[in-house]
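Message: Study each token:
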Amino acid sequence: MSSRHDVGWDRIYHHPENLPWELGQPRNVLMKLVESRRLVPGKTLDVCCGVGTNTVYLAKNGFEVSTLDISDEAIRFAKEKAANADVEIGFLVGDFVNLPFRSELFDFVFDFGCFHHVQLNERASFIKGVQTVLKPNGTYLLVCFSYMNGEAWNYFTKEEIVKLFEGSFTIEKIKHVSSIEGDGIKRYFYEVLMVRLK
């Protein structure tokens, strides 16, 4: 998935109001971590930011946020949202498998729905990229599809997630959750809170 044209993400984002993953509010897991002060403001990357709902929330709460998305259209909508909220965010269109940021730049990486779009042969590179851009002891919050949604190449079990990430991160918490998405359908996710190994 190195090219945004391979799967037509610009076309998909042409009508963001129809996207099932856009709820019009930040994800609960993110808000709880911010409100509890488990996450404190710092340099943050929202990878695969979509139209910027979570991104703007973080910026409004004092986080210094950079974003990356594969879609020009998604970034266009996210920029509009940031302007309307009067927050400063660094926006970038690019390839999420090869993150274009320097090493140990971020205190926190937020990933809602990015990792489960990474192709099988690129997963190791993606994980290494997230590990590289995080500072030692930096936090990575992953939200990805669960096997409870059915059978698919990118639906995960807890055991699969642990196996993929345990060599690069300490998993603090992994929780199986359900969510009524924007299209009214219940979907299942794993919320995984991790800390980069030194």
About this structure: The two ends are 29 Å apart (CA to CA). Confidence is low (pLDDT under 50) at residues 1-6. The domain at 9-196 is CATH 3.40.50.150 (Rossmann fold).
